[in-house]
Amino acid sequence: MTGDIAPDLSEARDALIRLVEAATVRLHRPTAGPPTAADFLGSGFFVAPGWVLTCAHVAAEALDGEIQVVFRTAAEDDGAERAVRARVAALLPDGPRPSPDGRAPRARGGGWPPPDLALVELLEKVDHPCVYLSPHGSAFSGEGEVRHSGWAVMGGEPRLVTGSCRVLGNVDGGFGPRTQVRLGGDLIVPGMSGGPVVDFRRGEVVGVVKAKADGVQGGGMAIRIEQLRRLPFGPAMPDQPAQDLYQTVLHSHDLFHAGELTAPVHAAWADVQQMLVDGGRLPPRALNCRQYVRLLGHLAWLPLPDPVVQRDLLAGLLGTVRDLPLPPPRAWRDTVGLLRARETSGPGLFLLLRYCLRVLLVPREARASVERAERDLEGWIQSMADQHLPEAHRSEITQGRSAYLARRQARTTAPRAPQPPPEPSWPTVLLELSDAAWQPGVYDWRVRVVEPDGLVRPVREGNGLLLQPHVPQGTPLPLELADALEEAFQQSDGPDRRAVLELALGPGRLGVDIESRRTGPSGPPLGVVRPVVIRWADPVPQDEESSHRCADRWRETHTAAVRARVLDCEDGLGVPVPDEEGQRQLPPTIVPLLCGAGTAGGTGWQPRAMAPDGWGAWSRSPGAGPYPADAGTAAPPRGTGRHSGAADDAAYGPRDLYGAHDRVPYDPDPWGAGWGSAWDGTPPPGNAADDGRRDDDVARLLRGGFRVILWRRTGPVRGACDDFHQYAADTVVGSGTAARLPELVRRLRARVHEGRTDTFWSTDLALLYDDPGRPLPGHDHRMLRSP
Question: What pLDDT score was predicted for residue 435?
């Protein structure tokens, strides 16, 4: 740093350097042992949870598309590193996947044609920082200073290298697919390819290091971050349409940074950006950096836009699309970045808010999370208009909001779609566990096949079976029980279907996750190949009124469109499940969700402490959801304070710049079991406190008449609370009726088993599905009449 830089600006730049370095990774070929310099391929950087951006010529060296991502643990100061399994998900310009042999051929001469970009997907769930990507790349438009970061082998060891460069110009034009940016300045050495290029004025990553300069001179070539928009549609999932990988990753990026605004343990990237903007005396904007990041977070909760719709929205605002930059805007954030360049005055902000209103009016499927995201965005628009726009412009914004509200009302009152015919009935396999006297974790067991007409066929039973709860995925079942289940499945399965496995469990046994185990020495867990549901084995005291209410709830959830509601978590903090009187107020179509934030294994159960903005911000878990997930009612704007968020957004100051890149310490082997250095979707073991609280919650809901309940056994992994609220609610609503939930949960388990990081929110998911009209064999007394 030079001596004429203001202390605040110098502090902000130091913090920015730490943020960038913490997110810069190196890539290695997979090996049996620790990564070495001999396996080193190049550099990359985290752009979204579970995603690394690098150069195609680096990622293409991965054999069979497999690669290792190595990064410094964010919570350590001793240089500790972690290696994570990953796969090459996309190469540019070679399409959405590597060639069939797993290694795309190099271009002639050993180079790789521009844009030379690749996306790498982590196959394990790990906690890591992410850079902030510029939506417009303005630093490359002039001759400003940028900074680069990357890894290089020096003295036989990989070392992190940073430097400064000047933008000298372009090669092959300014915005074409082959355009590269010329950099001059500090030396870029081999191995740094794939590292980030950072705009030091605004604190944004604007490009990717591609190559060093020829000869001994400094500098080299870089690729604009906007070139990633040229990524084609990705591969289709087995039962899903083709994926827009670019938008998926960028929306995840925006959600990550919006979530950082509510994490009290470190300064958000937006805080550092604001310090840079203030210290550098850049032209003021109507929105500060936190407000801008929050807007992108609101938009990211909406479904991915069609690029043609984006173009039409812009044409309606600007009157033409002739002057759009290349490649054209594709995600919501791309268009917002384009409009933000005009946002230094009131009219520019007015244009941005008009665009947001038009986004609200885009027709889209009515889902719980979509409706909530629309409400959040609508509230944000009104708040910004009230704060920054003159009266004439505010009235037009109000008219646009009225049009949106009328459309939303029409959508919510529309007639229900006809329900599909009921599924045919098939035999089910019933596994009953009962506690062996004075032996915790040891059970007597019985396996039976139950026919649709109620006929019961015994298969096998036994005593003294040891079953530990919360086991790693793929743990084998004890041989005796595995053989009994296989025999029952042979009697129940058909050529194109798998029988449902029902687990009859009671208090103290809900942690027994049979679905995580397999019946043979190899193969997937039971919950991957067939639906596995829980039935309550103990009596449920009910009077006549509550018995009728139970039957009504079951009927409504199977004949009408179901909704979801999280009942044990609010603002990322554990709250008591409503008592029976509170449950009576819930609609009969509600499926309760239990997040587990209040369990000892979760991250959100902390004493409330009011922060200056009115939220319990300083007691909130890092990454925890900032508002209660209620798929049926309105919620406050996400992460924006209790009402409009004005106070929170105005106070954007950093909380701890020196700790800006720190996170809560992550223990690579938190259970002392030698299960590996990174979380791979395998849940941690629970404890008696966790299971006891869950037993109480489930029993209370059963007394309230609920027979379909969805929960996580071990509580949220840090940062996954809000994901569970959103995606679990979408799963419930998307099922149409509760009858489809057992199969939908099975599909989620299958994707977790495949390593699909976008489904890790559903790890350790449990479903109670207990038809009150079909009591367990010999358990007709379960519904005890209260005196």
Answer: 86
